[in-house]
Amino acid sequence: MSQTGILTMEGQKYPTEISDLEHLGELGHGTCGHVVKMRHKRTNHLMAVKQMRRSGNKEENKRIIMDLDVVIKCHDYPFIVQCIGTFITDSEVWICMELMSTCLDKLLKRTKRPIPEAILGKMAVAIVKALNYLKEEHGVIHRDVKPSNILLDERGTVKLCDFGISGRLVDSKAKTRSAGCAAYMAPERIDPPDPLRPDYDIRADVWSLGITLVELATGEFPYKNCKTDFEVLTKVLQEDPPLLPPSTEFSHEFCSFVRDCLTKDYKKRPKYKKLIEHKFIKKYEKEEVDIAAWFSDVTLLMAVQCRS
Fold this sequence. Notes:
Elements: E1 4-9, E2 12-17, E3 21-29, E4 34-40, E5 45-53, H1 58-73, E6 83-88, E7 92-98, E8 102-103, H2 104-111, H3 117-138, E9 140-141, E10 150-152, E11 158-160, E12 167-170, E13 173-174, H4 187-190, H5 203-218, H6 229-238, H7 252-261, H8 272-276, H9 279-286, H10 291-307
Antiparallel strand pairs: 1-2, 3-4, 4-5, 5-7, 6-7, 8-10, 9-12, 10-11, 12-13
């Protein structure tokens, strides 16, 4: 049983025992474990630690291995959460990651306000590039794109996290049916032509990104009136896709980008290379947007609301 690992912090490597880490509280739950805030006692470095219990369940163990594999391989990509080290014991796997300030799901719930288009433009650039990197460099599809898996820090950095249900692509297609959040699932994953042989590709994540952007831009989940997952899935299959409401609030480019992401027929839905060339992405690749200042204002507003 290994209670020792190497943590890389601020460019320095530190041989570390599990006992060198102080538990500071719960941060949330991932696909196959819970995430806690911890402090490296010697350096005072703060981190997020995903703790996953090893079990006899093959599916759970597969998720742990996938999560480990992706974060270790992608540790230096700017739009994917950084792994600073791991601990693997007989009973648990710990993935130590950089500590981010919040996820977009929590931010939306606390502020109860939509996120401005310019901020979402920068976020969309980061997420599309992260998803494209996973596909092109590692042959991986995320399969769980949603606001709770998009992280933000006080510097305005946006990163993708949680790779437990990511899948390997074979000839650019996913060959397994893995779980994911029903609310953000693409039609072709809900109702595949051949349920025994699932055959979808990265465009399923493009749909999830579209739903995510509608939710963040309006401040409301597009299927918020549904009481069960079954109701959501039925609406996804039977109704027209949600779109941004027509208003002067959203640019033509943003509405067009969301409409492309939420093309119901996945064969007509764009892949990442086409999305990266979209006017909306091109605009926010170039445009200077101060996410850090916006986040600072939002954090201040939340603090005032808590006191009042």
